[in-house]
Each structure stands twice: as structure tokens, then as C-alpha cells.
UniProtKB/TrEMBL annotation:
GO terms for molecular function: serine-type endopeptidase inhibitor activity. Keywords: Glycoprotein, Protease inhibitor, Serine protease inhibitor, Signal. PROSITE patterns: SERPIN. This is Alpha-1-antitrypsin-like. It comes from the Eukaryota.
Length: 407
């Protein structure tokens, strides 16, 4: 019998809204010299949009939250242990072509990306890492262990998978600690035949560069669909924003910057245009939005939300052409001489937008704006939210907020 592998991805993102006055500092060119990470950012963005377009039609009225960056990191780590067709399918699924980039450059790119993504201060925290839980009697190849430490700094722990409950507790305790208590019970019902589990976690917490004032937050209607309306706490701010009205795709894009190197796009499709926007999402679309943002005054209303989602990525990866690794034909001989195949890829993410930290400062942000009435952008129906790290030029999270009250 083939050994079983289970991949897990755990993601947490927070948007913390705080008081305080900050100058607007907007820039689009974030290349810090010629970096290895810059060679892979387009691949991550392309993977992000392709995976989102697979998940979106199946979501019905469920919220979507994924970290393409995190999933890409985990799959690229698997490249170090796969060969033949299994290897080629993962490369293609991640949209890499070895005629335009060498494999060493891919791993070097992710290695640098991991360093660029690690931030920790009072205003902005981003932490990501990898863990390998290995059955205690399995002997992995030393070359594999050396490479995943060298490029991905993976932590390796011996695990008794023959005792599934004990193994699940070990893994879940690890993830709960790494995500500061936000993701619990990532794995359950483990197969006793499991030989190793690979985990990637990502934890993000940021404060807006220009905050919302909680005294203007008020209850409002959010229109989930034609038949469903829910009550939400709607945050509001009038001031200067970078935004773009995309008439071709019938949507409005508002950029909201965090302190530090993170930024986000809030994308509101016109009524009835949600499906068309989902289908049009692409790297070129993201680039068009980034290049067309202009600074103007506006009134922006965004609901508070606290959403999470758990996915089996097996079927979406099938649709991206990554199939061999799940079959008895899987070639994971770069990991161990024992026959292995992948059983499951589990992905869980949490995204929170709230007003935590507001008591830390007493001042309220004030901006001088023209007397003319600015446009009013109300995110009171399903919208997209994309979070990027501008220094690493990486797509951290892609979310669709279908129902802000749905946890």
C-alpha cells in the first residue's frame, strides 16, 4: 500500500482599524533592486486568479478566502521531492515554464519571498512558515531534508500517525500556536496510513494607514442577493482615496493601504455584474487596476466582518492539471524510497476586519477635502478583497465577501 501524505495550509489575516493621523504615502514601484522573488510574483498572481476562478462558481452564497501565496509555497516545496510526470504537473499547475525560469531560481525566489514576507512590529505583523510532520519510522532522503531547510526553512517533527488522535493534536497545537490561536482543529480524522503532513501557515495583522473612526460606524443593510438582506456594522470614511472606476468590467476598485508594506484592493462589481467580474479576474486585470488608480476624494463604506473558510483543494488542483500526485503513479521518490501518494490538500483561512486597537490613541484623523460632494462607494453587496505585500510584490490573500455576517 502506498503511504499517504496530507497537505495542510493555515492562513489568518486581520485588518485592524485604529485611530491616529497618518500621511498618505502612495507608490506603485516596489522593486527593491533585482530580487529573486520578483521572478516568481507573476506566477503566484496567475495561480491566484486561476484558483479563484475555479472556486468562485461553486461558492453559491459562501464567502471565499484563500492565500495563493501560501498554497504556491507549499506546492513548490513539493517540487523538491517529486519527479517525472508528478513533477511536471506541479510546475504547470503553478504556471512555471522551465524554458523561461530555472528550477533553482524558483526555489531561490520562494526563499527570498519568505524573508521579505516576515514583518513584526506594532503596526504590521506578517509571519509565514512551513512544518513537516513525519511518521517516526520513515527515513526521508537527507537531500530532501537539506533542501527544504535551505530554501523553505521548514520545521521537522517526528509524529506517531499510527495514533491518529495524538498526531492530530500535535499538528493542531502547532498551527494554533503559529496562528496566535486563530486557527484550531485544522486536521481531524487522520488516516492511520499517513506518513507525513506538510503544513504552511500565514498570519497577517495590519492597521490601516488612514483609519476609520468607530463613532461613524452604524448598522446598515447588506444585500447578499435579490432575496437575502442582512444587517451589518458599516464603517464609513470620507476623504482622499486611490480608486478606479473600471467601465469595461463594470466595477469600482478602491485601494486601502496598511501601515508597513501591505495594501489591499476592494473591488465592487456593479449590480448584476458579479459573475462577469469573477470570470475576468486575471494578472492583466490586476495590473490594469494598479496602473489606473487615481487619487480623488470619496466617501467609502465597508462592513466589518470576520470570515473563515476551509477547503479541500484536491478537486481544484485536478482542474489545474495536478492529478498524478494523488494516484498510485505518483513519483515522490525524491522524498523517500517508500512509495507515496498525496491523499488530501486542506486549506483553511481566516479574514477579519474590525476596529481593534482604537483605544490606543486619542486623536481622530482629519483630512482637508474639497467642498464639492464626492462619489459615494457603498460596499453593501458582495465584493472582492485582495491583499498584497508591495515589497515582495506577492498576492497574499484573495477573498470574496458574499455575506459579512457568515462566520
Amino acid at each position: 500500500m502506498n503511504g499517504v501524505i496530507h497537505l495542510c495550509l493555515a492562513l489568518v489575516a486581520f485588518s485592524a482599524f485604529s485611530h491616529g493621523h497618518h500621511d498618505v504615502d502612495h507608490h506603485h514601484d516596489h522593486h527593491d533592486g533585482i530580487q529573486a522573488a520578483s521572478k516568481i510574483h507573476r506566477n503566484i498572481a496567475q495561480f491566484a486568479t486561476e484558483l479563484y476562478k475555479i472556486l468562485a462558481p461553486k461558492s453559491d452564497n459562501e464567502n471565499i478566502i484563500i492565500s495563493p501565496c501560501s498554497i504556491s509555497i507549499l506546492l513548490s516545496l513539493l517540487l523538491l521531492g517529486t519527479k517525472s510526470t508528478t513533477h511536471a504537473e506541479i510546475l504547470k499547475g503553478l504556471s512555471f515554464n522551465l524554458t523561461s525560469i530555472q528550477e533553482e531560481e524558483i526555489h531561490q525566489g520562494f526563499h527570498e519571498l519568505l524573508h521579505l514576507l516576515t514583518h513584526s512590529d506594532n503596526e504590521f505583523k506578517l509571519d509565514t512558515g512551513q512544518g513537516l510532520f513525519l511518521k517516526d519510522d520513515i527515513q526521508p532522503l537527507q537531500t530532501f531534508l537539506d533542501k527544504i531547510k535551505e530554501f523553505y526553512e521548514a520545521e521537522i517533527q517526528a509524529t506517531k500517525f499510527q495514533e491518529p488522535k495524538e498526531a492530530a493534536k500535535q499538528i493542531n497545537d502547532y498551527i494554533e500556536k503559529k496562528t496566535h490561536g486563530k486557527i484550531v482543529e485544522l486536521v481531524k480524522d487522520l488516516d492511520p496510513e499517513t506518513v507525513f503532513i506538510l503544513i504552511n501557515y500565514m498570519y497577517f495583522k495590519g492597521k490601516w494607514k488612514i483609519p476609520f473612526d468607530p463613532q461613524f460606524t452604524e448598522e446598515a443593510d447588506f444585500f447578499v442577493d435579490q432575496n437575502t438582506t442582512v444587517k451589518v456594522q458599516m464603517m464609513q470614511r470620507m476623504g482622499w482615496f486611490y480608486y478606479y472606476i473600471d467601465e469595461q468590467l463594470s466595477c469600482t476598485v478602491v485601494q486601502m493601504e496598511y501601515n508597513g508594506t501591505a495594501t489591499s484592493f476592494f473591488v465592487l462589481p456593479d449590480p448584476g455584474k458579479e459573475k462577469e467580474l469573477d470570470e475576468a479576474l486575471s494578472v492583466n486585470t490586476l495590473n490594469k487596476w494598479a496602473h489606473n488608480l487615481q487619487r480623488h476624494t470619496a466617501r467609502v463604506s465597508i462592513p466589518k466582518f470576520d470570515i473563515s473558510a476551509t477547503y479541500s483543494l484536491k478537486e481544484p488542483l485536478f482542474q489545474l492539471g495536478v492529478t498524478d500526485i494523488f494516484t498510485d503513479h505518483a513519483d515522490l521518490s525524491g522524498i523517500t524510497e517508500q512509495p507515496l501518494k498525496l491523499s488530501e490538500v486542506t486549506h483553511k483561512a481566516v479574514l477579519t476586519a474590525d476596529e481593534s486597537g482604537t483605544e490606543a490613541a486619542g486623536a481622530t484623523a482629519a483630512e482637508a477635502i474639497p467642498m464639492s460632494v464626492p462619489p459615494d462607494f457603498q460596499y453593501n453587496r458582495p465584493f472582492l478583497m485582495l491583499i498584497f505585500d508591495t515589497k515582495a510584490n506577492a498576492t497574499l490573500f484573495v477573498a470574496k465577501i458574499k455575506n459579512p455576517t457568515q462566520h
